[in-house]
Design a protein that fits this description.
Length: 118
Amino acid sequence: MSQVSFGEDFGQKVDLTASIRNILRNYPEGTAILKELVQNADDAGAKVVRFCLDHRTHPASSIANPSLAQFQGPSLLVYNDAVFTSEDFASIQRIGDSLKNIGSESKTKIGRFGIGFN
């Protein structure tokens, strides 16, 4: 019998689409997404957060898939001045989970209790 080492796939599977659908279904409507973006910027140590509502609509003639035409504008652009780290990149890849509740700095993170909007 072979040994299973920590982190090795042992058959557990997660339907990514269903997980994202459930997060979106349970996410509150309204301004909650704006609060989430400000919270993420604060957790990252940002001093500046800027929102820009871009009313432009871009042509859909050169997109990869015609179904993406509906996403060619308008859009909300969000900027903060924090540095995006490799830990941040690892955290946004975790569906319905966060790395904010791990480590010594976790007590200062606003988002340590939530699941974010990932």
